[in-house]
Amino acid sequence: MPNARALPISPSPAPHPTLAMKNLSVVKISTKKKITLSPSPSPKWPPLGFKSNGEVYAKIPTPKELVGTASNSRLLTRQLAQIVDGVRICEKYSCGAVQLASLNGCTWWEVNAKLQGVTSATDKTLRVFGTLRTLARATSPRQITTVLLISKEDIALKHVIAGISANCYHDATNEKIPSSIYTPVEITD
Question: What is the pTM of this model?
Fold first, then answer.
């Protein structure tokens, strides 16, 4: 059997610490995160709380919802800020509102409503004091619009807007849009 021989290892000189300064250059590394934007989710359809009749969807907003909607709509804000006899219009007259949307969009809207309340302080029978016809501008498919319904009856009478119905039209009209007509009901005794 052959013998294995190891080569003699000579000790290497021990390293000596040196204080040599080398020219160091500063390297700045910048990393930017790639931001990917995802598209906004489509609004839920049909809208939450809306009732439908065919392609038309409607909802009576709460006062809090109306204020929130007005904060995003210059038109609605202007309507609510109208001053009559030194006060805002809906602090002077009985008002209501309806939010509308259509699956296919509308060329114009017609909203009809009644102003009703008790006959007198002693007679609690409900009766109609007037009718309201409001025409509103066009909307795109699935666009929600808020229509303010303003009567010309003093709010102190505590009458309410009720019996609201809305029609979505797809043809042109020769009527003035937007517009609102309040017609008091003649009292016959």
Answer: 0.73
